Amino acid sequence: MTVVRNLLWAPTIGLSWLWGLGFFYSIHVTLTYGWLGFFGFAIANVGGLWLFGYILGRTKRPPDEIIKDIEGRYAGVFLLFQMAALVVTIFGFVAYLWQPIVGEGSGLGVALLLLFACAIGHALSLQQLKLLHIVYTVIGVAAGIVLLVGLRQASDYPGVPLEQFDSRFYGLIMPTLVGFLLGPWLDIQHWQRAVTIKREGGNVGLAYGAGALLFFGFLYLNALTASAVGPIGSILSIDGLPSAQGAVSAATVLAAENGQAYLAVAFVIWTVIALASTVDSFYCATSWFLKGKHLRSNSPLLALIPDGIASSPLWLLIGAAWVAFTAVPANFSLMYFMMPFATLFISASANLVCEALGAKPKFDPVLSFMIGCGSSLIFVIGYIQPVPGFLFIAPFIGLIGALPAIIELVGPRTKAVPVEIVDQPIRMMTPSPLAAVSGTDEITPSHGFDGEWFVMQLVPTYDDTNSVGNVYFANYVRWVGKARELFFNVCMPDFDLATTRFYILTRSFTHDYRRESKEFEQITVRIKIARHNRKFVTLQHEIHSATQGLLGHGEQSLMFVDREHYNPLDIPGEVIKGFLAYWPKDSRLSPNHRPKIEEVAKRQA
Q1: Can you tell me the distance from the alpha carbon of 254 to that of 157, in angstroms, rounded to the nearest whole number?
Q2: What InterPro entries does UniProt report for this protein, alphabetically (predicted)?
Q3: If you ran DSSP here, which 8-state letter would residue 417 be given?
Q4: Is the whole model's pTM more than 0.70, yes or no?
Q5: Total of domains in the chain
Q6: Which is nearest to 100 in space by CA: 218, 257, 221?
Q7: Is 313 helix (H, G, I), strand (E, B) or coil?
Q8: What CATH number should be reported for the domain holding residue 105?
Q9: Domain encompassing residue 202
Q10: Are residues 180 and 39 in the same domain?
Q11: Is residue 372 part of a domain?
Q12: Mean pLDDT: which of 4-8, 145-149, 467-471 is highest?
């Protein structure tokens, strides 16, 4: 039963990846480069989809934790990726199907179709879309088979050759491989599906394996259809290069003129299903992402925007539709809308994969964008000329932005050497106990002295966090207070409030916050005697995270009063004796104190 539940995800996984890039480019690549060209494109595409599910299914952290951790850093590139995918989908649908079949003035029909698909994505949950996409798959594949059989009967084209490669194809091998292998990682639709499958107790790897195979079937159906009609109706794009994406549309138009209008209807049904399933998935997933990010955001600007507007993907759809409808009359080629997936987005995708595999966050959005733009420019030059070498190296240039994360993940492991710099994470605690005060029992590894510093280690939990998820600011003060009490207990184990003649009071406390910590980070609190005079002792403290370094530091001043009238006292002898081993080296109370030469000369004078 569990296997069946996983397999039911295959249709929505396959359809959600069948946007214009896969649907129409499978036709073009088959007619332009032959069957080997198609299989090279399809295997890379299918392999990237499967690897996404396989890796997320085997990571130690569940996908929902990963997406919460990365959403802030990758929000911009996630949304830009969704918009780029929509541009490819809408442009391909209008340029290679709707306009050739319906003719000019088809914009209103496309707009209604897009709004209808968005309404479905808004009204239905992902589980409901999953069931709807099963129905879509049955209807769409049936229409595609009818189209394939009808075109084969009406056409005398012998079929595409095994291969017909040119220099441009060889240059496109690496962009195709890298772009498709990394592509799914920036698609919010796949993250939403992976999170939902995992929460249901399903197997993400199995579901995506089945979805990838079904997706290959969709591509293969289009390739067979292209092979049945041949490169008819090829057009020259703005760059002067032929595009064969509209071959099937041209064949159905000719078939309709010969009394076989049902073939055009079948192709429209299959293509509309591919478009609608992409758009409703986009709306559902993007809305899910924006709602989650909006709820977890503490930005004051978002508080002024209604939730429905802040989490609505419609503005992305409007932007994508404007770009697509502008590009169609300009006779752009689909290749230039595919290009960003092999250049501009490569750095972010690679960084994201490395983080999912355990690397520390190193993604720099601005740097990655600049590198991606340079990679895109080299790709365009290499494609038009053509210069196969430029095409080949373009994705590697895009990967430069992910090199730090890649090196950390696959490079040699080095052991960190502790350094005495307060802005760096410290690793002072070892499995062996810390040094204990003379005459006392052995101290546990959770607290004890390390030189002049008293060190306490702890791990914050959800109890220590606020509603945002970070550790509540007052808990840092509480931790310092706890470390101070343990410090006193170790130094003065016989101190008893019932019999003491003095009290130790806090005269002042300051703390400079540097960074915030989260639950389950290893926290180290360090405290030591910084200075003193006759009546007051100043303690210095630092709070460190094992992953973030210095979280904050500060000081507190202690005063001593008698227990009867709270009159100020000089530092009591019990305190001097208890703190004897830990007075600052420049203190006259320290047993290690050595007067400076200037002081000795001054006394002798």
Answers
A1: 14
A2: HotDog_dom_sf (IPR029069)
A3: P
A4: no
A5: 2
A6: 257
A7: coil
A8: 1.20.1740.10
A9: 1-333
A10: yes
A11: no
A12: 145-149
